[in-house]
């Protein structure tokens, strides 16, 4: 947690976070907030108001957040606006508290001259530093070339990304894009096919067609998945077959399954 926050500011942010999580977990309509949750929005606005007068620019920006609220905003839009609150409270630390800080393995091979393979990951608005760190570790494990971080996806400068990646972030280049659309355009221009991992009614199985050649896997937000506007711009959309009640996997698990299937076919 930032040491620059006063106790009152921390208390206010904790209240805001609690309210935002209540809204996120109780609002089943992804396109519009319920009347009850609209009342909670007003409480959040009141809690954010004092931040406008802060001497810190980042806190001033928090105070301006209500300017982006609207009565018809979607749940996705609301959650996106709450990400800076989570970051101010370093909520991502909870994802990794179970990992030992002094983990050391003698089997790591610190070889700098190995050849990276033409495999890439595009992470669009991934919320959890734990998931991002896990994908960096995966990227190193499969010999991927780089990881693209889009939107509010945390980068490898964040302590919890480093911790989860077990320092793999040191060996995997990262490329930052303001929007995932720009990342898709970039990789397609490099003659790299972009395959979105998403469940839709017309999506092919990951295993139906070959996964040959340079490939970037596009992965979306843990709850909302990928925006439909992005799906129209990729080379293909694939899904991982599911046989239980739930229709999707954790984003890190999905990335691992796709990456090792690509690795198997391109070995």
Task: Return the domain count.
Answer: 2
Q: If you compute it from the alpha carbons, what radius of gyration comes out, rounded to the nearest whole angstrom?
A: 20 Å
CATH class of the largest domain: Alpha Beta
Kindly report the average pLDDT value.
88
Helix content percent band: 25-40%
Helix-strand pattern = HHHHEHEHEHEEEHEH
Molecular structure report:
The protein is an alpha/beta fold. It has 2 domains: 83 residues; 147 residues, SPOUT methyltransferase, trefoil knot domain (Alpha/beta knot, 3-Layer(aba) Sandwich), CATH 3.40.1280.10. Helix content is 39%, strand content 12%. It is built from 9 helices and 7 strands. It has a 7-stranded parallel beta sheet, sandwiched between helices. Strand 1, helix 5 and strand 2 form a beta-alpha-beta unit. The longest helix has 20 residues. The radius of gyration is 20 Å and the shape is globular. The N and C termini lie far apart (44 Å). About 6% of the residues have low confidence.
Question: Which helices and strands occur, and which strands form pairs?
Answer:
Elements: H1 7-26, H2 35-48, H3 57-63, H4 75-88, E1 119-124, H5 129-141, E2 146-150, H6 159-165, E3 174-177, H7 180-189, E4 193-197, E5 204-205, E6 215-219, H8 228-231, E7 236-239, H9 251-265
